[in-house]
């Protein structure tokens, strides 16, 4: 009896300790995802599989829930503070959803290892282009479609609202379709491509791009999580600490974002995307993806 009680106590302590470690890691992932606009999912999956040795299918299921939590937590704060451009986000989400459906249809006919390597190259390219100088948002002129859709908006500045224009809407929609297709093919978030599309192509300010990306990534994840739930890949014991860690982490990131410099955010974006790209390239070349 005593031995059995000790075994159960030890197992309970182990489970609680593991849950606390997963919670703390998810907290950091949620904060990072909110700051960069990538969502915590890109950190959660490799973290759970490589560090905690959890089956990738259950890791993806928990990650999808964390992406929804990140998007919901950060997006609510960003919308309230006036950072997210809801019109741009809802418009671009149409193209992303269509791309995701297309990518999912092609997934059975393409080698995902090859696509993983291509995606890694795209991510490396996004890191390079994110540091190239371009005209400031105050120098951008909105195009006819942007004015017709009333996409121009403002974000909070030190001395009041700062107005910015949106341009190249068709090009942004095309790149969003690509982002959705890549996401559908590989089963990962496409926050990096979304940020680049809005920042580099449509000329939105970088902080507006990251906050709008956070608003968008939860929509795609919400449609995907039902599939994992129906297949039994949502483990409450795993998803519970992940979501409880990611949600406050996302809110923390949303609070830190207004005080973070644009150069710092770009550097953080570059580091996260580079690590993700290396992981994707390695997994693709080794045939592990």
Report a brief summary of the structure.
The chain has about 290 residues and is mainly alpha-helical. The protein has eleven helices and two strands.
What does it look like?
Helices cover 75% and strands 3% of the residues. The protein is mainly α and 289 residues long. It has one domain (19-285). A hairpin with a 2-residue loop joins strand 1 and strand 2. The longest helix has 35 residues, at 2-36. The N and C termini lie far apart (47 Å). Mean pLDDT is 75; it is low at 1-9.
Number of strands: 2
β-strand amount: under 5%
Number of domains: 1
Let me know the largest β-sheet. Answer: 2 strands, antiparallel
Q: What gap, in angstroms, lies between the N and C termini?
A: 47 Å
What gross morphology would you assign?
A: globular
Order of helices and strands: HHHHHHEEHHHHH
Name the poorly predicted regions.
1-9
Helix content: over 70%
Mean pLDDT: 75
- Tell me the radius of gyration: 20 Å
Q: Going across the biggest sheet, name each strand in turn.
A: 1-2
Structural class by helix and strand composition: mainly alpha
The number of helices is: 11
Keywords, separated by commas or semicolons:
289 residues, mainly alpha, two-stranded antiparallel ribbon, 3% strand, globular, disordered N terminus
Indicate the topology.
Elements: H1 2-36, H2 41-51, H3 56-81, H4 86-106, H5 112-130, H6 144-149, E1 153-157, E2 160-164, H7 169-186, H8 191-201, H9 206-230, H10 236-256, H11 262-285
Antiparallel strand pairs: 1-2
């Amino acid at each position: 009896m005593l031995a059995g009680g000790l075994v159960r106590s030890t197992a309970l302590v182990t489970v609680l300790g593991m849950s606390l470690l997963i919670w703390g890691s998810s907290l950091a992932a949620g904060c990072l995802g909110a700051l960069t606009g990538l969502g915590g999912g890109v950190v959660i999956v490799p973290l759970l599989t490589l560090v905690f040795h959890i089956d990738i299918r259950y890791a993806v299921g928990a990650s999808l829930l964390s992406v929804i939590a990140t998007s919901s937590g950060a997006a609510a704060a960003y919308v309230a503070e006036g950072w997210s451009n809801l019109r741009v986000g809802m418009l671009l989400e149409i193209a992303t959803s269509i791309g995701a459906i297309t990518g999912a249809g092609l997934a059975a006919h393409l080698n995902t290892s090859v696509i993983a390597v291509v995606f890694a190259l795209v991510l490396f390219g996004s890191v390079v282009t994110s540091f190239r100088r371009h005209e400031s948002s105050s120098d951008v002129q909105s195009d006819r479609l942007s004015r017709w859709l009333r996409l121009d908006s403002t974000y909070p500045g030190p001395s009041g609202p700062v107005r910015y224009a949106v341009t190249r809407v068709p090009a942004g929609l095309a790149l969003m379709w690509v982002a959705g297709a890549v996401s559908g093919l590989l089963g990962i978030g496409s926050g990096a491509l979304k940020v680049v599309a809005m920042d580099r192509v449509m000329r939105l300010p970088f902080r507006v791009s990251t906050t709008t990306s956070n608003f968008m990534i939860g929509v795609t994840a919400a449609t995907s999580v039902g599939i994992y739930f129906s297949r039994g890949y949502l483990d409450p014991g795993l998803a519970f600490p992940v979501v409880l860690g990611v949600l406050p982490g996302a809110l923390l990131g949303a609070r830190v974002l207004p005080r973070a410099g644009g150069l710092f955010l770009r550097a953080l974006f570059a580091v996260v995307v580079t690590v993700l790209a290396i992981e994707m390239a390695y997994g693709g070349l080794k045939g592990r993806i």
